[in-house]
Every structure is written in structure tokens, then in C-alpha cells.
Specification:
With 691 residues, this protein is of the alpha+beta class. The strands form eleven sheets. An eight-stranded antiparallel sheet has the order 6-7-8-9-16-13-12-11, with no helix packed on it.
Length: 691
């Protein structure tokens, strides 16, 4: 007889997300089953910022659940669910009574429009009810697999109300009977004649005066280009992604003009340094407004003091912002993070490069100028705090033991492994971070020069010396030839596993032409590129697993960064190979790319296997298609210098594409590439010339 686990000893598990439907308009997000029902299970619920404000939204017709048949997005922030009520209406085989449930998230909560349509030849009468519960569980408790007891609703003044301190949830439903108490709900008595229809509405509004995030004042921060492409997957992915990105926009309370993209639903609906920066950087072809808001929001939180408990250091850009300290207990251990946490090794470097790139795309000079003191502070962090042991490389260590053990983008506890599977000991100097540091030094020097500030030559010298040290310390031999190691460990040994991190070096300038070609060839090898995108770890490594969060899965943004670097360095075929894998994944996920998916080979899996806890929608996954489009077009402006270069993927390996309404210098521009790879550009602003 097999031993059965004792349920009382089972550890709580992070809830699965892959089969849930997200309806989002930040800071509100609703997660339900494919039938539209929100059940008291896992991470289902209506969330407002970092709290679950409704834990159950359960629709019944005569006490029975309608039978679901379909759901689909219905524009930004809306989902339509269709179900049948086959026990009502005509007695033949065709269903004659159906329920349409249009759920719409908004800045203050959620509303539903319930439409019951009868095509029956006979009258139907029924009771329509919506059961509601509220537990006010913090997002970190839900992520840990927990929850809280339901609160009782009070019914007065035509509304159901739940309160938790200053936070109030208010549900109204015109014409409905209100049911208060713990098992709260709404009830309508309905009678329909032959071929009649009825619609009822209800709305949940959240008042949360302590929320640290809000909906931005302005409707949008980027252009929505008209794109035609030989590969229609690109246009379908772009349309869905831009809808999703519109719903992920946030601003800090009290600063509604500075929009940024929240990292993802449901765990990360807030400001994240690295994620928000990368998302804004990929979106630059559509305008600089998002970059400007992101830069300013992070600059206001830039480190000013030394605080080991929060990892704050002068000039450092923060990692994440929460209303309260974040405690998470899971399979990999426990995290105790402060409300403002600086445990990131790369956000400061990426902030510098975002400012530089936004300047090149035409961010107004006065907006760039006001951020120059923060640029100098960020360079000061790179000079004084990024390399604590003085070996010339940027590194990290979790000094107090309750934060993130790994502080690059692969921040899970087991992400940094040797080829034989052993985990590396901190302090750790990640390979891609050295590329970011090189690029930040070069980009910082360009900005210092342009605005007449001192220090540019010193930073160019810093970059040159870093490239020499990097070349000597990081390159190792492997089964497929020489390649850059994942990291250096505390003993300065190369962590010799082959990973996607090396793709982030492309386009930074730290590699020679020959080294760039070697990295491109490695990325194209079957162990890396035969999945639906680029694997985070090569399939031949001992630590590889197709569903390991950072050691074998495919991340859309990671693949897109590699595609961008490959395109910049002239490796068109490899860029197209990875883009094709990503587009195939997008098709399989109904054009809403998740945070990550499995690294299974396309030869053995007809569809990518979902990673069960992946956020969806997720900001830098949604912006990945803009990076792919940009790689295809190859437009690279330098507005301050009055030049625009266009270097599309050679031979147009993904086919012809035209984008009308890109933004260069704030003006709409059309860039087209024909089937041979020949580009044309129209609408350049006055003063800009093609290079």
C-alpha cells in the first residue's frame, strides 16, 4: 500500500495561474475560471492593488451554474463570458436560453453586465443570483497559498458594504434584492416572454485612501501604430499586447502625471525598477512619454543613504514598491522584504541606459535636463557601491539573509548554477550585469558630454577597462566552444553553465565583433533555440529543467532582449529564428504572452506547456512584440545629433512589414521594409536626416 501524505503536514503551495482568466485595469484585477466564476480557491478574486476585495463572485440561475461555452477579451480591461441555461426554454436539442456576462475592470473596481437572452417559443421565469464574499486577504498571503475568513457584508442605503480599516468595498445593483451577512449576494426575479432579453448590472467600487498607486491622469503614454506584416501573427500579438499594456498603467498616488507599467498580474501590480525600466525601454519606438514617467517615478525613490536592511545605497534605483512589508513563504524559503526594497543589482544601470535611449529617441531636452542630477547620482553608485570588493566587477549579496538571494533578473534562489548543477555562492557578479555596466558608462558619458557636465572621459575609460577585465575573466570553454560564463562566484570562479544571460551582452558594446558572432551562434544552437523562444538555460546543462523558473523555461522579454541585441549586431538569421519561436508561442497562448512558459522542444511538444504560476498579462512580455517589430525595422534615431539610421534585418527573414505612426522626436513616422529587406522612411521631423 502506498503511503499517503498527511494533509495536516502538507506545506502550502503557491496557487496556479495558467488556467485563470485575467480582467485587468490597474490597480484593479479580477481572476476567474474560464466560466467567469470567481470561486474561493487559490488566487481567484477581485484584487485592488495589493489586497483581495472580493473572494467570490458566483453566478446562478435558479440555484444552478450555467454551462460555460466560451470566453474572449472584449477590449482593454474587459472579458465576455458566454454560458447556456439548457434546463430552460424549448425542449429540443438546440439551446434557447443563454447568459452573456461582460466583466469590466476599472480604476475603482469592477462591474458586470448580465444579459439573458431567450430564443425559446415559450415564456421562461427564473431567479438570477450573484453570490459575493470578501476576505481582504493581502496579496502576499494569497501568493503563499493562504487566505482569510470571509467578512460579513452590511446592507444599507441601497448597497452592500465591507470594511477593513479605511478600505471600503461597495456593491450596488439597480433593481436587485440585497442579501447581507457572510454569504452575501444579489438577487433578481426574471420573467421573459418568447424571444425576449433582459440585462442587469452590478458594480463593485473600492475606496482605499491608503493605496500607494492609482490610475494615471492621462489616457495613454504612447502611440498605437498601424502595422501591416506578411506574418499576421505580429499584428495580432501587437494588438492584444497594446490592449494589455493599456490596462497595466499605474502612477504613484499624488503623482498621476508620471505613468509607469506595473510588472504583472496578480503578484506584481506595482512599480518594479527592472521590469518597469525594460518595459519602457522596449516601448520607445512608440514614444518617450512612458519612459519619462518611469524615469521620474524611480528618480523620486532613488537611494540616499546606506541601509543594509533595505539594500538602499546612495544613487541606487529601487527594486520594488509595496504599501507594507512583503512576507512570502514558499517552497524555496521565506522572504521578508521592506515596503521600499532596493535588492537589485541592475536597475540603476538600466535606468541610465533608459534615460540615454529616451534622449536619443527625442525626449524633450528640459525633461532630460531635470533628471541629470539623478544620472550623476546613479553613476556615483556605480563608482562607489556597485563593486564592494574592488575587483572591477558589479556584484551583489543579500547581506541580511531575508531578501532576494539573487538580485539580477533571474532572482530565484537556485538561478545561478554551475554546469554540474551546483549553486554558486554569493557575492555573485552576473555576466549580463557587466554588459549593462559597460553600456551605462558609455551612455552616461554621452549624456554628460551633451549637457556640458564633467566626467565623460573618465566613464569612457571605465568602460574600456571593464571590457578588458571581462574578456579575461568570463570566457570559458564548453562542449560547443568558448562562451561567457553565467557569473563569477565569491571565489571569482566562472559559473560555467550556458544560459540566456549571454544574449543580454549583444548590442551593449562590451563584445568584439568576433565575440558577438560566437554568442549568436551559441544562442542558435538546438539546446538553446529549439524551444518556443530562447531557453533560460541550455538543455544540456545539469541544472536544466523545462519547468524550472530560471533554469530552462522561456521568458518572452528575455528572448526579445536577445533578438534586439542580435539585430543591433547584425545577426539577422538568429534573430529571426528566435522571433519565430516567440510568435509560435504567442499563437498558442491566444496572443497574450505569459510571463514565461516551458522550455520543451518544439519537436516533442506541439504547443508550449504553460508555466503554472506565470503572470498574465505581464508588462515586459507584452512589450516583447514591440522589440521584435523594432528589430525587423531597424530604425535607430539620434535626435540630438539630427540623424536617423535604418538597418532592418538583412533579407527580411520575417517578411515585409510597414509601421505607420512610430514616434521619433515626438512626431509620427512611417517605416516600411519590403520583402527583400529594403527600407523606406517617410515623415521624418524637420531637422532629421537619414544616415
Amino acid at each position: 500500500m502506498l503511503n499517503q501524505p498527511n494533509p495536516s503536514e502538507a506545506r502550502p503551495l503557491q496557487p496556479l495561474l495558467h488556467d485563470l482568466v485575467s480582467t485587468v485595469f490597474a490597480p484593479a484585477s479580477a481572476l476567474s475560471g474560464a466560466d467567469g466564476q470567481i470561486r474561493e480557491a487559490g488566487v481567484q478574486g477581485l484584487f485592488y492593488a495589493d489586497s483581495r476585495v472580493l473572494s467570490r463572485v458566483h453566478l446562478f440561475v435558479d440555484g444552478r451554474e450555467p454551462e460555460p461555452v466560451a470566453f474572449a477579451p472584449d477590449g482593454p480591461g474587459a472579458t465576455r463570458f458566454t454560458a447556456l441555461v439548457r434546463w430552460l426554454g424549448d425542449s429540443g436539442p438546440d439551446p434557447t436560453v443563454r447568459v452573456e456576462r461582460l466583466r469590466t475592470a476599472g480604476p475603482s473596481g469592477m462591474d458586470e453586465c448580465l444579459t439573458v437572452t431567450s430564443t425559446a417559443a415559450v415564456p421562461v421565469a427564473f431567479t438570477l443570483t450573484v453570490g459575493l464574499s470578501c476576505d481582504f486577504a493581502p496579496i502576499e498571503e494569497v501568493k503563499s497559498g493562504g487566505g482569510r475568513p470571509d467578512r460579513a457584508a452590511s446592507g444599507h442605503d441601497g448597497a452592500l458594504r465591507w470594511r477593513d480599516g479605511e478600505t471600503e468595498v461597495r456593491v450596488t445593483a439597480p433593481g436587485a434584492e440585497l442579501i447581507d451577512g457572510t454569504a452575501a449576494g444579489l438577487r433578481w426575479q426574471v420573467a421573459l416572454g418568447p424571444r425576449e432579453q433582459v440585462t442587469h448590472h452590478w458594480q463593485a467600487e473600492v475606496r482605499d485612501p491608503r493605496s500607494i498607486v492609482t490610475t494615471p491622469r492621462h489616457a495613454t503614454d504612447w502611440a498605437r501604430p498601424q502595422v501591416t506584416a506578411a506574418d499576421h501573427r505580429i499584428t495580432r500579438l501587437l494588438d492584444q499586447s497594446l490592449d494589455d499594456l493599456q490596462t497595466l498603467r499605474l502612477a504613484e498616488t499624488g503623482r498621476p502625471d508620471d505613468a509607469f507599467l506595473a510588472a504583472g498580474v496578480p503578484w506584481f501590480l506595482t512599480l518594479f525598477g527592472r521590469d518597469s525600466i525594460w518595459a519602457a525601454r522596449m516601448m520607445l519606438p512608440l514614444g518617450t512619454g512612458l519612459a519619462a514617467g518611469t524615469l521620474r517615478a524611480l528618480a523620486r525613490r532613488q537611494g540616499r543613504a546606506l541601509d543594509p536592511a533595505t539594500c538602499e545605497e546612495p544613487g541606487k534605483i529601487m527594486h520594488e514598491l509595496r504599501r507594507r512589508p512583503f512576507h512570502f513563504s514558499g517552497a524555496v524559503g521565506e522572504l521578508d522584504l521592506p515596503d521600499v526594497y532596493f535588492g537589485t543589482v541592475d536597475a540603476t544601470l538600466l535606468w541610465i541606459s533608459l534615460l540615454h535611449d529616451a534622449w536619443r529617441w527625442g525626449m524633450p531636452e528640459d525633461q532630460v535636463a531635470e533628471l541629470l542630477p539623478h544620472l550623476e547620482a546613479a553613476l556615483g553608485w556605480l563608482d562607489k557601491h556597485a563593486d564592494p570588493d574592488g575587483d572591477g566587477f558589479v556584484e551583489y549579496v543579500d547581506t541580511h539573509g531575508h531578501g532576494l538571494a539573487n538580485q539580477g533578473w533571474k532572482d530565484s534562489g537556485d538561478a545561478v548554477r554551475f554546469r554540474d548543477g551546483r549553486q554558486a555562492d554569493a557575492p555573485i557578479a552576473l555576466v549580463e550585469v557587466q554588459g549593462y555596466a559597460y553600456q551605462a558608462a558609455v551612455h552616461g558619458a554621452a549624456l554628460l558630454d551633451a549637457y556640458g557636465l564633467a566626467g565623460a572621459e573618465r566613464w569612457r575609460d571605465h568602460a574600456g577597462r571593464l571590457a578588458e577585465r571581462f574578456r579575461a575573466a568570463y570566457w570559458v570553454d564548453g562542449p560547443h566552444g568558448a562562451f561567457p560564463a553565467l557569473a563569477l562566484d565569491r571565489y571569482k570562479r566562472p559559473v560555467d553553465s550556458l544560459t540566456s544571460n549571454i544574449g543580454h551582452l549583444l548590442g551593449t558594446g562590451i563584445l568584439s565583433e568576433a565575440e558577438s558572432a560566437a554568442v549568436a551562434a551559441l544562442l542558435a544552437a538546438p539546446g538553446n533555440a529549439d524551444a518556443f523562444g530562447l531557453r533560460t538555460m541550455a538543455a544540456g546543462e545539469h541544472g536544466y529543467s523545462p519547468l524550472s523558473y530560471h533554469c530552462g523555461t522561456v521568458w518572452a522579454h528575455d528572448t526579445a532582449i536577445a533578438i534586439s541585441g542580435l539585430a543591433a549586431d547584425g545577426h539577422a538569421e538568429v534573430a529571426a529564428q528566435l522571433a519565430e519561436g516567440l510568435l509560435a508561442a504567442a499563437e498558442a497562448f491566444d496572443y497574450r504572452l505569459p510571463e514565461l512558459h516551458s522550455g520543451d522542444a518544439r519537436s516533442t511538444s506541439r504547443r508550449p506547456v504553460p508555466y503554472p504560476a506565470a503572470c498574465r498579462p505581464q508588462a515586459w512580455s507584452a512589450t516583447a512584440v514591440v522589440a521584435v517589430l523594432h528589430a525587423m525595422l531597424g530604425v535607430r534615431p539620434d535626435v540630438p545629433a539630427g540623424r536617423v539610421s535604418v538597418r532592418p534585418l538583412a533579407g527580411a527573414p520575417l517578411g515585409a512589414v510597414t509601421a505607420r505612426g512610430l514616434r521619433i522626436g515626438g512626431k509620427p513616422v512611417t517605416v516600411a521594409v519590403d520583402g527583400t529587406g529594403r527600407p523606406t522612411v517617410t515623415g521624418l521631423p524637420s531637422g532629421l536626416t537619414l544616415d
